[in-house]
Amino acid sequence: MFAKLGTLMDRYRWPVIGLWLAVTVAGAVFGGGLFDRLATTSTNRADSESAVAQQRIDELAPEGSMVIAVIEGKDVYDPGLNASVTKAGQEIKAMAGVKEVHDLYNGPGGQIGADNMSSTVRVELDPALGEDAREQLEDKVKARLKQIEAPKVTVGGTKLAERAFGEQSVRDLAIGESIALVALLVALVLIFGGVIAAGLPLAVALVGVTGSLLLLLVLSFATKVSEYSLNVVTLLGIGLAVDYSLLIVARFREERLLREPAEALVEAVARSGRAVAISGIAVAATLAGLTVFAEPLLAAVALGGAAVVVLATVAALTLVPALLSLAKERIPAAGEGRFTFRTDLLARLATKAQQSPGPVALGVTVGLLVLAAPLLGANFANSDARALPHSNEARQAYDALQQKFNNNHPEDVVVLVQAGPERADVRMFMNQINNQLNAQVFRQEVRPDVPKGWTVLDLTPKGEVGGEESLELVRKVRAMSTPFPKWVTGPSAEVIDYQDSLARRLPIAVLIVLVVTVVVLFLLTGSVVIPLKAVLMNLLTLIATLGVLVVVFQWGWGQLPLFFDSWGGIDLTTPVLLFVFIFGLSMDYEVFLLARIKEEYDQRPDTNRAVLRGITKSGPVVTAAAICIVIVFLGFTVGGLVAVKEIGVGMTVAVIIDVTVVRGLLLPALMTMLDSWNWWAPKFLGPLGATPATSAPRPPKKAAPASGSKAASIAKAGSGAKAGSGSEAAPGSTAATTSGSTAAAAPAGTTAVSPADELTVEVPAPRPPSEELTVEVPALSRKPPADTPPVDNV
Q1: CA-to-CA dists, residue 384 to 52, 421, 580, 643, angstroms
Q2: How far is CA 371 from CA 491, 542, 549, 578, in A?
């Protein structure tokens, strides 16, 4: 199937390239419209208790957007400051769409800071304003507040902070993509030894960027797409596009050592195309598993991510072969070119692991569990303005309000009661809160202007923002028995609802990911042991990565090198997204390695030999792919949003752990220990699994036999004798032939190649059991040691 695809792409290269060029142009022209459709998406489902309560409160006593100015650096009783604030308040009050203005000098609602040198101005906008009108009015109010005569005036508010998130996200995306693409070009030139070969994966990455914008634009008409989703999905799309393209180009360069360019292209697609398709299907399916959570943010990432992965896979399987067909004569074979990228890191690690498989497996497992230990104290919560860079004005206003006016207390826990405050049972409920929950409640207030028959209580928790006290308060209020219906909402309640929703649906998502992993790897290898082993290794990578994230972000150890301010937690969405992304990318490298190991095992069913040769041959490609995708992820850590940094750092750590420790040490150690059990599967599943590869290697392009060679020589047949079943070997020799092939007569101890290019090898007998057969290819002068397979160039 994939060989046929390679042939078609070679034949119809210009139409294929033209089609992808049209997609790229369309994405560049129309994709920009996505930025006008980006929207803030909620982390919680619409039927969660906190969402239902907030929706009802908005209907009963709607409150408009708040714009808050913090005035600092001047005595609050200064007459000049008084006059300046009063004038600003009057002018703002006169603006159409402004509902209320509260300051220290005119009416209630004014605040004096703890230092007696700061005060606030709070402007409430009309809740009936549309989004565009509200944003325009917010800008006008902010501009007028900035004109107050004081040493420092910072303006913020919830909606302004949300807008700051969006704007920062777009800036981060532009910076991250620019850095990543430039660094990728340099890395790919060094890896492939030439600009043309390096340009192919980069071209697919560019198609991935513009195509992603186009796909997300279409998706935005069906569901909300947030700035955060755009960043995460684009990051994943670029990384996979480069990974898949690099695998095919690297295999093409390797095949060029043995074949003419056209044949090398077909063989590269036939071999690597299958691995790319399997990996793409697996990653897209695991991303689709996020939809079971039904949270708007995760649903947008799931749908967008799955679509972008399909785009990257199809581009790698079609555009890369078409471009290779166009430039195949100008792309050097492996080991040729100005630069030569060589690494035997994975081969060396695998050799060490196979020498002492038990201690290596134990040591790696213990090491990863140690890295995961900080996860036991993880604080997962919703990001707020603290996740913005400190240079952002909305973040500065938030910090000033918390430190000088709110004593760093968390935001209020809001209780909606379906009964009026005049009822005795409602007053008794309020007394219960004061008496029984005084360890958690700092202040309790009844919200005014609520319609008859309803009560809204604002409970200010004790403790600090993000602390356990506010979460405990939500749980205890919800657990209190009352004769009337009640609901609890607020930021802390939203966190609990989100955690509970994830906990309920996580088993389903895990099951989907595990089923996809097991099925895909079973179809690749025909084994049920290898998929289960892969799942366990991926879980170790995941928990080790999350443990590192806790240290870097929650503990704040990465503040200096990564330029952020720790807010004492990890965003709630990060572990869920990393779970899916890590399993998806780990499947990439698992498929790349296992496809080559299975190829070697099909040729000679010796597990230890197949593992070492498979890792040695695919190791440079996997290492190069890991370097490229790490560059992409690191490009997104230079932005200002902490939540995006968490994903970038998390994926970087996961790839480094997975490619070195897990694939280089743990995988070969476990496969050596399991030996023939690696390939076990129940008999009734046998017909469904992978079948051994049947295509035999073609002869090298240059096959002049070396005189006096002690190894078998390879030569084209001029006339044939039947080989395979029923063929006769020379006396005292063993004939290894391809069944049913027609080979030329060859002297005993030589290899004859049939006109159909199928290989027949006659091995002199007797032969010591420990000695391996060595076939010398005259066109390739290098001969590896008997116990170590050759290290292939990418």
Answers
A1: 21, 32, 24, 10
A2: 31, 10, 10, 16
Assess whether the previous peptide bond of 201 is cis (omega < 30° from 0). no
Rounded-to-integer distance, Cα 714 and Cα 530, Å: 36
Q: Which two three-digit tokens encode residue 188?
A: 């790919």
Residue 118 CB neighbours (<10 A)? 23
Tell me the two tokens of residue 773: 């057969």
Give the phi and the psi of residue 786 in degrees, each rounded to 5. -65, -30
Question: Whole-prediction pTM value?
Answer: 0.76
Residue 65: CB atoms within 10 Å: 23
Determine the Cα–Cα distance for residues 679 and 387; give it in Å rounded to an integer: 48
Residue 261, number of CB atoms within 10 A of its CB? 19
- Residues 374-402 as b or e (16 or more Cβ within 10 Å = b): bbeeeebbbbbbbbbbeebbbbbbbbbbb
Dist CA 592 CA 607 (whole Å): 17
Tell me which residue of 745, 750, 780 sits closest to 763, measured CA to CA.
750
Residue tagged 């390739």 (tokens) = 780
* Residue 635 near residue 180, CB atoms below 8 Å: yes
As a whole number, mean pLDDT of residues 775-786 equals: 41
Residues 314, 328: contact at Cβ < 8 Å? no
pLDDT digits (tens, 9 = 90+) for 380-398: 887 778 888 888 999 999 9
Residue 415 near residue 440, CB atoms below 8 Å: no
Give the up-direction half-sphere exposure of residue 553: CA atoms within 13 A in the CB hemisphere.
31
pLDDT in tens, 564-592: 888 888 988 888 888 888 887 887 788 88
Strand, coil or helix: 251: helix
Amino acid identity of residue 169, one-letter, is S
Cis peptide before 766 (omega within 30 of 0): yes
